[in-house]
Amino acid sequence: MLREWVPALDWVPRYERRWLPRDVVAGLALVTLLVPQGMAYAQLAGLPPITGLYTTVLCLLGYAVFGPSRVLVLGPDSSLGPMIAAVVLPIAGADGDPARAVALASMLGLLVGVTMVAAGALRLGFVADLLSRPTQIGYMNGLALTILVTGTGARRMK
Fold first, then answer.
1. How far, in Å, CA of 22 to CA of 24, rounded?
2. Cα–Cα distance between 140 and 76 in angstroms, integer?
3. How many Å apart are CA 136 and CA 139, to the nearest integer?
4. How far from the centroid of its chain's Cα atoms is residue 87's Cα?
5. pLDDT, tens only, 12-28
6. Which helix (H) or strand (E) holds 123?
7. Among 33, 46, 118, 137, who pairs with 85 as Cys (CB 3.0-4.6 Å)?
């Protein structure tokens, strides 16, 4: 039962030492790419760049322990920045308090996480298959417009 929730318990004992040099090189390459990307996306979301650093590193460590795949590469997603900014910036107000923005973005992340865990437990993954191609294209176009229209919102938080 515990191995279902913590897959690392299954693969860590079978890890071979000869894999370590290549895994270290792959990890360094991944960090080199994802840390600046995470910091930039945090800034795009109206948060201090250091937030992206913490989020990127901690999420990668969390996935290493709880993720179902030993070889999957993941990282920050550019579509999240504008969506977080669209939610957090209006609530944070015009005073641009970074601490309040970080707290609100953190709560948003926790709420989304709880929602995703509940959806997974209820086996609701099939809902994603119900989204038509035009709906997906509309989402991407809406996201592009959000980036264009609110692109200056991240600069107001400084």
1. 5
2. 17
3. 5
4. 15
5. 888 899 999 998 998 88
6. none
7. 46
Structure tokens at 136: 């997906």
Per-residue pLDDT at 115: 92
Token reading at 32: 């080199």
Of 22, 1, 3, 2, the closest CA to residue 11 belongs to: 3
Q: How far is CA 117 from the centre of its chain?
A: 15
* Alpha carbons 121 and 50: distance in angstroms, whole number: 33
Please give the structure tokens belonging to residue 59.
């999420």
Over residues 30-81, the pLDDT tens digits come to 888 888 888 888 887 778 889 888 888 888 888 888 887 767 667 676 667 7
Measured in degrees and rounded to the nearest 5, phi and psi for residue 128 equal: -60, -30
* Residue pair 42/55 in contact by the 8 Å Cβ criterion: yes
